[in-house]
Each structure stands twice: as C-alpha cells, then as structure tokens.
Amino acid sequence: MTRLRLPPWLVLLLPAIIILAAVVLVPLVLSFYSSFTAYQLTRPETLWKWIGTFNYRKAAGDANFWWAFGRTVLLLTIALNLEMLLGLGLAVMVSKVTTGQRLLRTAMMFPMMFSPVLVGFQFKFIFNDNVGLVNNALQSLGLTDVAIPWLVDGHLALFSIIFAEIWTSTSVFAILILAGLYAIPQDPVEAAKVDGCTPWQSFRFVTLPFLMPFIYIAMAIRSLDVARAYDIVQIMTNGGPARRTELLWTLIGRTAYVDARMGYANAMGYIAILLSIFFTIYFFRKLTAARSELGMGV
Amino acid sequence: MKRLAGVSVAALMLGLSGTAFAEGEFAGVTLEAKLIGGQQYEALYARIPEWEKMTGATVKIISQKNHFELDKEFKSDLAASTTNWCVGSNHSSFASQYPSLYTDLTPLIPADQVAEYVPANIAAATLDGKLVMLPRAQFDVSALYYQKSLYTDPAKAEAFKAKFGYDLAVPETWDQLRDQAEFFASPPNFYGTQYAGKDEAIVGRFYELVVANGGKLFNDDFSPAFNSDAGKQSLQWFVDLYKAGAVPPGTTNYLWDDLGNGFASGTIGLNLDWPGWAGFFNDPAASKVAGNVGVAPAPKGSAGVRTGWSGFHGFSVTENCANKEAAAALVLFLTNEESQILESSAGPLPSRTKVWEHVVDAAKSDPYKTEVLAAFQETGKTAFAVPATPYWIEATNLIYPELQAAILGDKTVDEALQAASDAVDGLMRENGVY
Asked: CA angle, B312 as apex, B308 and B313 as ends, to 5°?
C-alpha cells in the first residue's frame, strides 16, 4: 500500500485553500444554491425545495426592490461625491497647516473610530423631531416654530442619513487624499508657479491630476461601503417610514432575518452584488486611466 | 410513561410554597435556557437558584436578549439544527412562527395545573392543539393613560363643548379620542396623542382598531380581510390625527420606548399604552406627569367593542430537549403562583386567576394602583391575541409600510389597503396557506 503523496506546492497551499474554501467558497456556493430554493430559516427542510429562478423573477418584478435599488444608487452617488469634495477640501486645508498638523490629522480621524451603530443612535437622537438637538436648537434660536420631521419626510430623511454617512466617513477620503498630497513631486507645482499659473490653475491642472488615482481608490473602497449601507440606516429609520429610506440591505436584511426568507433574500443579494461589481469596475477603470495619464503605467 | 413523569413532577410542584420537592429530583441534569433579558424580566430569574437547590438540576442561561433578537436567534437555531437547548422565552406574538421548535406541554403538565391560568391566555398559548408555552406574569394589553389636568379646566371644557357639542370627559370611544386629541394639540410643544408608527407595533394597533370597528384582519382561512369598511375607517383614524397635527410628526418612526418617554415628558395628552409603564409614568423622578396620570379602559370602536390587542410572555420547552420533564418543571416553577406574585408586584399583569385576585387585593390601599388595575382588568376582559398564523410577523412587514404611506399622504387609504391586502394575499398563496 502506497501512501498518497501530494505534490509539495499543493501541500504548502493546502491550508490557504482549506481556509478559503471554508470561509468563502462554501458559503458562496451554498447561498447561491439557496437562492434557487424556497429556503426559510424556520423550516430547514425547505433548503431542498428547488424552485428554479422563481426568487430572481420575483425580485425582478418587485417594484419595492427596484425602488430600494435606485435609492441605494442615489445615496451612493450623493454621498460619494460630497464626501470626496469635503475630503478634498479638508485634506488641502490640513496640508497647508504648519503647526499642529499631526493633532489635526488625528482629530480628523475621530468619527471613523465610532461604531456605525453608535453613529446611527447619535444621529437618530440629534434629528428626533420632538426631543432632538437640531429641532430644539432651531426652535430656541427662533428660526422655526414647527417640529421638523427630519426622519419622516422623504427628502429630509435621506438627507439625515447622508449627513450621518458623510460625518462618519469624509475622513476616509481626507486621509487618502492627504497621503496623495504628500506624495506629489514639488517640481511640476513650482514649474507651474514660475510659468505664472494662478493658485487655482496649478491646483486644477497640476495637483488634481496627481491626486486622481488616490481619489479613485477612496471612491472604490467607499462605494463598496455605502452600497452595503445597513447599520446607520437600520438604526435611524429602518428603511421607513413608508419605505422612503429603504435601501437594498435594509430590505434584504429584513427579508432574511425577520421574515426568515433566506432563499429570496439571497437572490436579492446576488442581484445587489451586481451594483457593487459595477462601481468597483468603473472606479478601477477610472484609476487606470488616471494613472496612465500621469505616465505611471497600468 | 412520559405523562406519568410529568404528573409526578407537577405533583411535586403543587406544594411549592412549602418545600414539597423531592430533594435532588433532577440531580445531575443541566438545562440550557435562552431567556428574554431586560431589567423588568430578570427579577424572576433570581428564583432559579432556588429551583436548582430543590431539584439538584443546574440551569445554564446561554442567551439573554430582547424578543426581537431572540426571534432571530431561534430562526438561526432552526436553520442550523442547534435546538437541543431546553427552555426558551416565548411570546404570543412570535410563538406561531416556530411550529417545530417547541414541544406540546400537555403531556408534561397536568390539566388541573393548566386550569389555574387565565383560560384566554391558555387558549392563545395553544397552537394547532399544542400547548406551546406556559404564560408568565407579563400579560400585556393597552389601556388609556391621560393627563388628569386636561379635564379639570372649566375654560377648556366650555371651549370643547362649544366646538364639538358634547361634554369634555375621558374618551370612551376612539372618535371622541380623535376629537379631543385634535382639540388639545398645540404643536410643537404639546400633542393630543401619539401612536406606534412602524413594524408590528402599528399593525397591532391597526388590528385592534379594525376589530373594535367590527371588522377582521384575516378571514378564517387567513386571507386578508382588512380591506373593508372597518379597515378603511380604522386607517382613516390614523391619517386624520396625523394630518391634523394632533400627533408628533415623527410618530411613524416611534416604537414603545419613544411613546413611553414622550408621555412621561408631559408633551402628550392621551396615550394608549401597556401596563408596564404605569409605575414609570407616576414616578416623580422619571416622569413630568407624575401625580397627574389617570388610567381608563381602552376606548371602544364604532362596533361598541374595546380595542384589546394583547400578548403575553411565556416559557416553552424545545422538542429536542434531552430532559423535557425537568424543563417542564422549571417552566411551571417560573410561572407558578409565587413567581407570578413576585413579578406582578413590580407592576406587570399576571396570567393566573388567583394571582389577579391577590394583586387587586394588595393594591387596595393605593388609589393609583387600584385605578390602573381596574382599567387593565376591564380591558383584559375582551382582549384578543394576534391571529395564530406563522406568517403574522411577515404579514405585518408587508402591511406597515402601506399604513405609513397612507398616514404620510403618499397613498390614499383605499390604495394603501388594496396594496397591503394584495401583498398579504400573495404571501399566503405563495406559502400554500390557501
């Protein structure tokens, strides 16, 4: 009897393969399979009830799902752009500071240190219509005498959520762009000055192109973050009222764990992943283009 | 054999006030339990060591969370087949979702013991002929809390009569409550009333109003029945109050804590709420309305029926528990007379007939407590549980966004109820209910 001898490369890779299979491949295959079944958490036997593409067809024909999809794209677009602009401004300002810059950089990162759940609770209280800080401040200052329903009005509720997202994550952009600013070679900037460029021109045509790769990396990372926005929204509005702030993951989370319809939730999840894949590919293409423009290769 | 063992256990439990336990009856047995956590629920758990000492068994609490979190955990347990723990907290609103998780307690608990609980509670704890839980002293139905001072001001009374043509008094019907709420409201500093605005909470409120207005939420085959005149009348009530500014504009985001704290802050006139808040509302350290709180039975709808959506907590034994007899004994112990007296002394309502008598008797010297108990006892007489379908929570998740849409003006009452009814019909059909 000969012992089975695996080639050394396979033996060396085996631990990684086993771990990857256990934590990524098996759940992925299982969840993909279950999206074709009537799987309900409370009825384990339904995992074997094959229903073909029913869940996908149901999601595709569900207006609420597509509204949530569209709203997620809207949130993503607004939040990413505002975070980028504010982060860029913050980074440029901090880079100009001569004393206390380290302190500022550390302070800038404070919002990132809070758990999103806590941020959600904090802003839920701040925007509460009856006892919240914002309304009380506005009423005390005599700016309004009505209770503004921040978390109820369709536009205001989305604004409140975006505000919370921006508060907590602008520093991600700021830090990455600041790193970019430090990496910019000074020669082209000085050359632009000598050639008589205004500060705006040298920023627009020299500094910004150098920063674009950093901005796109930040965009790619944050687009994945925002596309799976769940915790802050779940705490602040839970997708409501009347589905006005329903995003993909609040809808999917409720379907999976409250309604226990895991098969259907997985099908929606797989459609939702397309969104993340799209944004990731889009930003990486942009990144590659920005790098080749700078002659940095691909 | 099982029944015999159950009977012997129960027989031991009968003389609980004494020490009739056979020492070490369950020596060496370890019971794992998943119990609801929270300050108001935990005083009872201090009795567990007493039971451990009497029986020799050990109780290991492996999870303590609120019911919504426990619910998710139970569902995950079912999915992963990790249901060999023994005792779980249960709730009448959630129980029907886990048809395979819990065992029938009928063979384990003798009938004369079961008869000592309030029959309506036992009926609601029996699903498909299975007694799935024993109710603890956490019976919930809502009565009307109000600020007494609103009814002692002659100028207000006169103005009200001039406007509505009848005397201002604590409302006995939901139409009167709507009139008064609109009359008292002075936003943004004072609101006539408020209501839970999302999740199961608003559907529960809608459900009880539909019943009070003579309608039904579901037909006998669980097809939706709320898209009816009674349903429209009920939803219109929510819409009217919101439109009139008689409720806080954020009410569609409110759940129980927001409502309780809102009434305690003194900015709400009338508040339909649960018995657990009675002490808090009248505690000067916690509430601005302390000393000014009145409690009346829940108002009636247009059919002359009181609202009375009720629920209760209980304990269940899992089907896969290795020692069901011991688990049933623990459940009986946690809901026995002494346990219920202990729990209800802090305010919650009992679910044993004798303990009700005890509680009413003990409150005689305290007029506020007497008023509270009278109001809840009266409301409890006609209380009703949620429809016994495993799809209750899922149905509420389909109904509540539509109710909100009507309240906020995104849809008309007719459109919202039609959409909710269609969605629930689809859910029931998809699951082969009919």
From this structure: 165
